[in-house]
Amino acid sequence: MRASQQDFENALNQVKLLKKDPGNEVKLRLYALYKQATDGPCNMPKPGMLDFVNKAKWDAWNALGSLPKETARQNYVDLVSSLSSSSEAPSQGKRGADEKARESKDILVTSEDGITKITFNRPTKKNAITSQMYRDIILALKNASTDNTVMAVFTGTGDYYCSGNDLTNFTSATGGIEEAASNGAVLLRDFVNSFIDFPKPLVAVVNGPAVGISVTLLGLFDGVFASDRATFHTPFSQLGQSPEACSSYTFPKMMGSAKAAEMLLFGKKLTAREAWAQGLVTEVFPENTFETEVWTRLKTYAKLPPNAMRISKELIRKNEKEKLYAVNAEECTTLQARWLSEECMNAIMSFVSRKSKL
Ligand SMILES: CCCCCC/C=C/C(=O)SCCNC(=O)CCNC(=O)[C@H](O)C(C)(C)COP(=O)(O)OP(=O)(O)OC[C@H]1O[C@@H](n2cnc3c(N)ncnc32)[C@H](O)[C@@H]1OP(=O)(O)O
């Protein structure tokens, strides 16, 4: 999944052939990603305030912090590829510098007031996550990690936050079940790594019930604001599956092993207040004032100095990163085997044929 040196060199050549001028903001991002991919974190002495051109370059490069060279290379390749396709597509109309939208069908991505908002937008299926949605989210986080927004916020359309993995992802896959499980494990690993790597504050606005991976991921968030209508449910044993998104590590650490087992082994569904008491939720709001109160709060947070927040997050996350990558890899290998088990296949078939609901 990572871009090779050859992909990077192709992207460098492609930039010279762009039909449209990408604009200064994008040029700076390309410059910063190129420098990070080749030289690593910013090593250029800070230019004087009046040296506007070099100061802008320094700011853009410095804002990438300790982003790994490989990730910078991948982001560079992705950015060039999006520029190449958009320079061939008809104009979509002009948007303000801090207000842009990149739409995909079931994942909405908008940027406003310094916040990238990523919305699960499949309300008729309770926002269950399809394979394409996993890929859309990986891309949205990649873009948000280097754009000019300050934080990323996840929420859901409709009555649910998210009902977790779409249980038909495997039954609808083309090819054999083993191939589907193997592809699923690779996709899941990349998906969770994109949350581990996200360098800016990451917040969930949990507007309603959350199930499965949408709950376990919260252990990798910096803030979780929940409506008092939200519930938190991880029915892995009932599904013949095992925990993911590093929850086998983050949940016991956060709430102690007994309470983590209650959720991850026995599938106890928590109310928003119970989840708050276990440290999974930052704050619970009454449903009728939830949206107004939370978004007002987030807009205030988005005005805090972005570099200070990024650097503080880096300090908090730094000593955990290698552990999180390792836990993620092991959870994915375990799940790959679980998906092929009779317990799991029976549970999925039972859901799909609607013989029983959880
Ligand atoms: C790359 C692979 C990565 C895998 C990562 C591993 C992740 C694991 C998990 O996330 S495990 C958790 C999986 N989720 C569930 O088990 C939830 C299943 N859904 C339900 O139990 C219920 O639908 C409900 C409790 C969420 C809501 O119940 P109810 O209010 O009665 O509504 P409906 O059941 O009628 O649902 C409406 C509509 O949505 C479809 N749907 C809901 N959730 C899912 C889902 N997770 N997968 C697929 N489809 C879902 C449901 O089938 C209905 O569709 P229909 O109207 O019948 O077409």
UniProtKB/TrEMBL annotation:
SUPFAM superfamilies for the chain: Acyl-CoA binding protein (SSF47027), ClpP/crotonase (SSF52096)
Record GO terms (molecular function): delta(3)-delta(2)-enoyl-CoA isomerase activity; fatty-acyl-CoA binding
InterPro entries: Acyl-CoA-binding_prot_CS, Acyl-CoA-binding_protein, Acyl-CoA-binding_sf, ClpP/crotonase-like_dom_sf, ECH/Chromodomain_protein, Enoyl-CoA_hydra/iso, Enoyl-CoA_hydra_C, FERM/acyl-CoA-bd_prot_sf
Biased composition, class Basic and acidic residues, residue ranges: 95-104
Enzyme Commission code: 5.3.3.8
Keyword flag Mitochondrion: yes
Annotated protein name in UniProt: Enoyl-CoA delta isomerase 2
Subcellular location: Mitochondrion; Peroxisome matrix
Pathway, per record: Lipid metabolism; fatty acid beta-oxidation
Record field: catalytic activity: a (3E)-enoyl-CoA = a 4-saturated (2E)-enoyl-CoA; (3E)-nonenoyl-CoA = (2E)-nonenoyl-CoA; (2E)-tetradecenoyl-CoA = (3Z)-tetradecenoyl-CoA; (3E)-tetradecenoyl-CoA = (2E)-tetradecenoyl-CoA
CC terms in the record's Gene Ontology section: mitochondrion; peroxisomal matrix
Region listing for Disordered, in residue ranges: 82-104
Domain ACB: 4-89
Stretches of the chain forming a coiled coil according to its record: none
Catalytic EC class: isomerase
Keywords from the named record: Acetylation, Isomerase, Mitochondrion, Peroxisome, Phosphoprotein, Transit peptide
Similarity comment text for this entry: In the C-terminal section; belongs to the enoyl-CoA hydratase/isomerase family.
Role, per record: Able to isomerize both 3-cis and 3-trans double bonds into the 2-trans form in a range of enoyl-CoA species. Has a preference for 3-trans substrates.
